[in-house]
Write a structure and sequence with these properties.
51% of the residues lie in helices and 14% in strands. It is an alpha/beta fold. α7 (186-196) runs antiparallel to α8 and α12 packs antiparallel against α13 (290-300). The relative contact order is 0.06.
């Protein structure tokens, strides 16, 4: 503090003119400046001005604010510390540059009266300036707070932002900022303001106009995706994201692709994009993001044919390269070789990859063997009847407890406790059983109040049907249905299972549909109700 604070009496030749910006009087001072003010405004300015210009603006604003505090009393021995002057410069610039943005204000009166409300950025900035002017009026430059620095910093930032707007100089700022493919079209700010007010159609129209006028600018499309997500229109958001990624891929902008994937990965299921786009996005992702690339390659395989086979082999190769889940690489390679209509060289390559993984120790989880079409038709097409026992053995049923590892339109991926994976085609599911079990115990896992989903998998001729058990705590619904609350996500999963399998519902149709879910004391009671004794 003694060496690097700003002391006006030391004159011009002291490091404190800059170093005081990086000193604070305590944790409250530091966190108040950084979290309450700096984090609210500075990132927006850095995005539109670029890092080099913003850094120069921040330091110059802090220096100007310090001059405003020191010059009225140049003989003062009082130390000045804190980033408040530079931060108020950011607040002043934000007040002009983002005047129509709405800022959420939190209030807390005593212990019980608290809440939030929104006000335009210009009124929020002027309110802060008014508080500092009042403090300067009452305490002058000799109080415990450097109000003169606050007012001076605000005036500096306000003036710089206003000058940039009037001269249109913002368009010529450093290429490190928003102008390199991410410039803010005026319609984008208007659209965001309209969306905040609930005028979604107006916001969409403004963004489509910006897209038409600046086809090479990705920012309007990015804003459109955000608006559709906020409006809970997942299909429209997916279409806008498809357009955004297609444009970034066409421009060869891998950085934009990577940035877009990281922003929306947890909010949109990118696996639902068109396979052609999904495969190109997977190709654009760097080696450090191979897990996302693998999932996208698998999603692209829904295209089938040569494209699907290549996508599966690329996904398998990622697992081999990183020595991760070799059993899954084996399953992917076998699935690639089984696709219809693929060229002989791809089929040969799939066999080679599967053999390579087998030599490395990878293997797939075994499910009941699929029988050839037409074989044993009479037995396998029999309608499900609870009196038809799963096996000639007493309870409990020998169920295979799994985790849900993936979802497609006609199949799901199952993950065994040891990590092995298998793809289960829904056409092989004879029945779906659902029940709320109060005491769940399986494989040493004891839990209370678990929703159990059983899939009865059709057996080969002469064999026994197999039960695959999916407890609710192993469904990972937030990953597979990120836009839905858990109850709705679970209903969507059941609808997919029933639609893809045409299976029977146990113990009843209403119980599977949750009208309501049937309750049971334990797994034995659940199995007795569904499969008989």
């Amino acid at each position: 503090m003694r060496r690097f604070a700003l002391v006006p009496a030391r004159g011009a030749r002291q490091p404190g003119w800059i170093t005081h910006l990086f000193l604070h009087a305590g944790w409250g001072h530091l966190l108040g400046n950084m979290l309450v003010f700096f984090l609210v405004v500075a990132p927006f300015l850095e995005d539109v001005w670029g890092r080099p210009f913003f850094l120069g603006f921040y330091l110059t604003g802090g220096l100007f604010a310090a001059l405003c505090q020191a010059l009225p009393d140049p003989t003062s021995q009082v130390s000045i510390v804190g980033a408040s002057g530079a931060i108020m410069a950011c607040v002043g610039a934000f007040t002009v540059r983002f005047a129509t943005r709405r800022v959420r204000i939190f209030y807390w009166v005593f212990l019980f009266l608290r809440g939030t409300f929104r006000i335009p950025a210009w009124s929020w900035g002027l309110l802060g300036l008014g508080v500092d002017l009042l403090g300067l009026r009452l305490g002058g430059v000799h109080g415990g707070v450097a109000y003169a620095a606050h007012v001076g910093g605000f005036a500096f930032g306000f003036g710089v932002a206003l000058a940039l707007q009037l001269t249109r100089a913002e368009r010529t700022l450093s290429r490190g900022g928003a102008e390199e493919g991410w410039s803010l079209h005026p319609n984008v700010e208007k659209a965001m303001a309209a969306a905040a007010q609930g005028r979604l159609e107006r916001a969409r129209a403004l963004l489509e106009d910006a897209i038409a006028k600046q086809p090479n600018d990705l920012q309007p499309l990015t804003a459109l995706v955000r608006i559709e997500l906020d409006a809970q229109d997942r299909l429209a958001a997916l279409r806008a994201l498809d357009r955004l990624l297609s444009k970034a891929l066409a421009a060869g902008d891998r950085e934009a692709v990577d940035r877009t994937v990281r922003e929306f990965w947890d909010r949109i299921d990118l696996a639902r994009l068109r396979p052609a786009v999904t495969s190109r996005v997977a190709e654009a992702l760097g080696p450090a993001d191979w897990q996302r690339a693998e999932r996208l390659w698998v999603a692209a395989s829904d295209a089938g044919g040569a494209l699907g086979a290549r996508a599966l082999l690329r996904a398998a190769q990622l697992h081999i390269t990183h020595r991760e889940r070799l059993h899954e690489a084996h399953a992917l390679a076998e699935r690639a070789g089984a696709l219809a209509g693929i060229p002989p060289d791809l089929a040969r390559r799939a066999r080679e990859v599967a053999e390579e993984v087998a030599r490395m120790g990878g293997h797939a989880m075994e499910l009941p063997e699929e029988h050839p079409a037409g074989a044993g038709r009479q037995a396998s097409d029999t309608a499900w009847d609870p009196r038809l026992r799963l096996a000639a053995t007493p309870l409990p049923v020998n169920a295979m407890v799994c985790r849900l590892g993936g979802i497609a339109s006609d199949a799901i991926v199952l993950v065994a406790p040891d990590g092995r994976r298998a793809r289960l085609h829904l056409a092989r599911v004879r029945a779906v059983a659902v029940g709320q079990v109060q005491r769940f115990t399986a494989d040493g896992d004891e839990r209370a109040g678990i929703l159990v989903t059983d899939l009865v998998v059709r057996a080969a001729p002469g064999g026994m049907d197999r039960v695959v058990r999916l407890p609710s705590h192993r469904l990972d619904l937030r990953t597979h249905f990120p836009q839905l609350p858990p109850p709705e996500a679970y209903r969507s999963l059941l609808a997919l299972l029933l639609a893809g399998s045409n299976a029977a519902s146990l113990p009843s149709r209403n119980a599977v549909l949750g009208k309501p879910y049937a309750g049971f004391e334990n797994l034995a009671a659940f199995e007795a109700a569904c499969y008989g004794s």
